[in-house]
Design a protein that fits this description.
The protein is mostly helical. The protein has 19 helices and no strands. Helix 2 runs antiparallel to helix 3 and helix 7 packs parallel to helix 10. The radius of gyration is 23 Å and the shape is globular. The model has no long low-confidence stretch (mean pLDDT 92).
């Protein structure tokens, strides 16, 4: 047995040495082949075994993307970029061929565009209302969630986008292609910012091969892709030219999804009043065409969303849930938590705004930290809300960004399947991982100082 064991060990050792001596570009290509294989089987694994199979495969793909990002920095940039973009296009073309697996939000986008094209305010009627009977069809309406009870939740800039895209084609595929166009803007901005920060442009692989944007944009087609594109475009304008113009663009992004708002703190200079006035003016102008319904322009947001997402009851707010597990539920604890969370976020925003380091790298890192803090305090329920973090995995490459952007895939759950992972467990892994990643970053930052202090003793 010993000679056989020795032979096997020798073979494995030789294989390990051959892999480590392989050129970085070849190793990168090898990772790409594995990612391609994982992506090819994911839709079928989901159909056969449900969301847990999807989560396992996509998280594995996310971990491989970390290795690919490190490998891409060692490979020849020109050749590596051809490989990076080539595989990214192939992956997106493939998942685009499947109907959305985990979300039907995109059907509402198409419907809202159709309603506006008919000259009707999308905030006036819910989709199944008799007033919209002439717009019904068998391809879009049956797939809309809460069609018989909820008006649209999406803000004005998202509505403008839906209207424009559906004038090209009223289909899910057309909408997803338009959102992939938004992704092209995001990728361009990532590469421009990387160059300005003197970091390898091949780091764009952290976004292009990342499973979160792959599945949540190319497959599910979430409008968050537009929000992310506007955020990065606004950051580029603000950090390289005009802060006010950049603020105007970022204000537009908040009218796609409001949770982009913390980004504004990264480009504001206290106590300059011009930027807040610009933001207010942009928001007011965008809402103006829809004011015929009065406060109804806030849509489903004020008519059920906060209840549905467990925010009013506090059930799905992770930190508050942990507090209740230890100390029990108390009257008005949600209001107290929201006030404290708002105060913490405001103080952190002011700290970021008052930072004396105006370099692009520092600003981007501060904005990343602010967004992660906002997600920790809010703890949203769906993975696509975390799409805004994915570009920062490329721009910053920090452990917290990777943990959150990959960990968000744990929220890709469907209640229709037998084995259901409780949301509090998924969130505990996700946000507990974020806290550990922050602790690790602090430890690594302080460790050299500790060693230096000991040497000087």
């Amino acid at each position: 047995m010993k000679p056989i064991a020795g032979t096997i060990a020798s073979q494995f050792g030789g294989l390990a040495r051959s892999v480590t001596t392989m050129p970085p570009l070849h190793r990168l290509a090898g990772i790409g082949v594995i990612l391609l294989g994982l992506t090819l089987v994911t839709p079928f694994a989901f159909e056969a075994a449900g969301d847990n199979a999807f989560i396992a495969l996509t998280i594995l793909a996310g971990l491989l993307t970390i290795f690919a990002t490190n490998m891409a920095e060692q490979a020849p940039p020109d050749r590596a970029l051809w490989l990076i973009f080539g595989l990214a296009i192939v992956l997106r073309a493939y998942v685009l061929a499947f109907d959305p697996l985990l979300s039907n939000d995109i059907y509402r986008y198409v419907w809202d565009g159709r309603v506006q094209a008919a000259g009707i305010n999308p905030y006036r009627y819910f989709p199944a209302h008799e007033a919209l009977a002439s717009l019904r069809d068998g391809a879009i309406l049956p797939h809309i969630n809460r069609a018989d009870s909820a008006v649209t939740i999406y803000p004005p800039v998202a509505q403008f986008f839906f209207l424009v895209v559906t004038r090209i084609g009223e289909s899910v595929t057309t909408m997803r292609l338009a959102l992939l166009g938004c992704e092209a803007v995001t990728v361009t901005m990532i590469m421009l910012l990387l160059r300005r920060m003197h970091r390898p442009v091949t780091r764009v692989i952290a976004y292009l091969w990342h499973p979160l944007p792959l599945w949540e944009i190319a497959n599910s087609g979430h409008v968050d892709a537009l929000m992310v594109a506007l955020v990065l475009l606004g950051l580029w304008i603000a950090l390289t030219g005009s802060a006010l113009r950049g603020a105007a663009v970022i204000a537009l992004s908040t009218l796609v999804k409001p949770y982009a708002a913390p980004v504004l703190a990264g480009i504001w200079r206290p106590w300059d009043p011009k930027m807040p006035l610009v933001v207010i003016a942009v928001i007011a102008l965008c809402y103006l065409p829809y004011l015929s319904v009065g406060w109804g322009v806030l849509g489903f947001l004020t008519k059920g969303y906060f209840n549905q997402e467990g925010i009013v009851a506090g059930n799905d707010i992770w930190l508050l849930s942990l507090w209740r597990l230890v100390f029990g539920e108390h009257e008005r604890d949600v209001a107290v938590y929201v006030a404290l969370a708002g105060l913490v976020l405001m103080l952190k925003g002011l700290t970021v705004a008052r930072s004396s380091d105006h370099s692009i790298a520092s600003r981007v890192a501060d904005i990343n930290m602010l967004l992660l803090l906002a997600f920790l305090l809010w703890s949203p329920n769906y993975p696509w809300y975390f799409l805004i973090v994915a570009p920062f995995a490329a721009l910053c490459g920090s452990a917290p960004s990777w943990v959150v952007s990959i960990g968000a895939l744990l929220l890709s759950e469907q209640l229709d399947w037998d084995f259901y992972i409780p949301r509090v467990v998924s969130k505990s892994i996700l946000f507990g991982g974020l806290l550990l990643a922050w602790a690790f970053v602090v430890w690594r930052t302080r460790m050299p100082r500790t060693i230096e202090a000991r040497l000087l003793q």
